[in-house]
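Example record used in the benchmark description.
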Amino acid sequence: MFSSKMLTVLGFLAFSATMSFAGDTLHLQVGKRKLQPFSVNGFSLFSQQQFNVQPNMNSTLKKTFVVQFKNRVSENQKDTLLKQGIETKRYLPDDALIVQGTADAVLLAGTTNAEIHGISVFEPEWKISRELSSPRAHARHAQQILISTLNKGEAKAVARALKSSAEIRVLFIGSQDLVVECHLESLQKIAQLDEVEWIQKLPVLESLDFNPEFTSKLDDPNASPSGETPPPTPPELNGYESGTKIMGFEAAWARGFHGEGQTVGMADTGVDTGNLRALHQDLGGVTAGFALGMGGDSWEDPNAHGTHVCGSVIGSGRASEGHIRGGAYAASMVVEGLWSPILNNLAFDQDANRLFGTAFKAGVRIHTNSWGNPSNPGAYDSLASRVDEYLWNNPTMLVLFAAGNGGQDLNKDGRIDEGSILTPGTAKNVLTVGASENLFSGGGIQAPLGKLKGGMEKWGVAPLVTDLLSDNPDGLAAFSSRGPTSDGRIKPEIVAPGTNIVSTRSHHKDATALWGIYNAEYLYSGGTSMATPLTAGAAAVARQYLMSKRNQGDPSGALVKAAILHTAKDLYPGQYGTGPTQELPKPRPNVHEGYGRVDMDLMTNLPANTSIIDDKAGAGLNEEKSIAFTLKTAGGIRATLVYTDAPGAASSSKLLVNDLDLQITGPTKKISSLGDHTNNNEMIEMKNLQPGTYKVSVMGINIPQGKNGKQPYALIVSETH
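Model output (structure tokens):
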């Protein structure tokens, strides 16, 4: 146990710190919590109960605590903790760390480190998702629960600890996650375990092709989703079928950028027959396939979704004489089939290291995912955190996720409501893709929104009610999910055509017709599912351009993402003009279009004096890293900063960990800065500038979880006219 002398000193330090430090609040999913653990009823005493130290308990056992500092967390402070036997695990705002160590070690740190404001146990209630916070609502029904541990390899220990509980049934054990079935009254017992970091409902994944609520699997293979019989021949080709024309791919292709040398990964329902020797003739770029679906032993596609997605990335157009192609039609593809024949749906173990690691080992550096969990829009959950963690540890990978198809106007104001983005598209480090409109009236779904099933409820007032799905490429698809995330971040970050997209058709006997049959080799479909692979093709071409023309030998995922955002076309004000029903209420970046629509013409034709920086060392706390950018003639400057941030804690309500700020200082010393402390992407656009030299700076505002104390970043600066 602890000596009375130690307790007295500890209480005095805690009381003094409380008096001098105002920022004593933790921002958690369960709400704000004041961290004053050493002051009990106004006396400078330490409560054993607050450390969960029971009489007769061995105080040398490692437990989980939260340590909050008076100021920004520095590398020296973390090193000091480590020397005292305390390991840093996660960052919590503000200026706090989730740590593991013995109670003796943590107490000693509190008595010897004057920079520590306060210490608390990592309370069980902080570990439980808000969607599980009302146990009485479902008390009679057992639910499937996902439990995440702080450290790899601890899931088995948690499973062993729960085996003695008859009311808890373990269904799956991974390295850092496990799935159990239990009543919600058992969650507190689970949360008491020190190994446990987060508890939430098991995510149920869905492919994100927009379902217009017609029949998805047609009795008549020649019938369209609307029930009409299509013409005997497909509509005359006009170049807009695949969605690539609107994105400027033709200009990129003309310059010689078709995705050569790039390998894209895709996790989806599978591809066509799942046999490399007998695939759709457009999909010769598929080089490998893996079956990751629960209970599956094949990566064949009995759904049609994955085959359509694949064609939008690497489809060669062979079956259409080169007319219907994917964006990176000369790239290679590694397929990961997530279809479960047991559940007849997408289902896999949700291990990000396995999902992305399998593809990474096969050479993949761009990875596209057209699926998500619709049950808790806007949330940053365990899966989002795991995705961010993988990318933090593997910074040369860029992962894309579809934003979701939850766009609705339920308040009937003529504008799509905000707050429908799906996880893991809520992850910070992924490129999250929304859907804009294609320009195509020849087939697929051409009914006005109000005439779709459920359309009057979702989009029942003007101008939405009469809008067609693919009649205005400068507008967004009404169904496309909007941000922000629950912590206020901008998502989606980019949009691409996602309505009436023509792409490759699965030949599996059970495959559906999606939005309708184009011909024997192609189908129509739509959704953010379709916009995402087109953007993945753009990312592959962008990566090729950066490597071959801009001397970026092994570009980071952050740089590829920055290039896509930097060159996007702002769609403001959108397709409905101005006024109260204006589609986009403000210019980019916004939570509807992000930074705009992909523009591969500009992406592969950046001005010669563009500065492209992939700083893999990064900026440290209070460090400024600057470049000089010379504007030779009057015009404008656009600067885009993107960085792969350390993973956030799912228990936190603020997810940005490391905070970099972008600044531009003009010849008159006037500083332009966003002061954005929420997003890990920033763009400054300045117009009507006089010629001169401008300083573009990246500032290290807060780096509590850096790499060697620094945050790597990508920066692109170019002139605009």
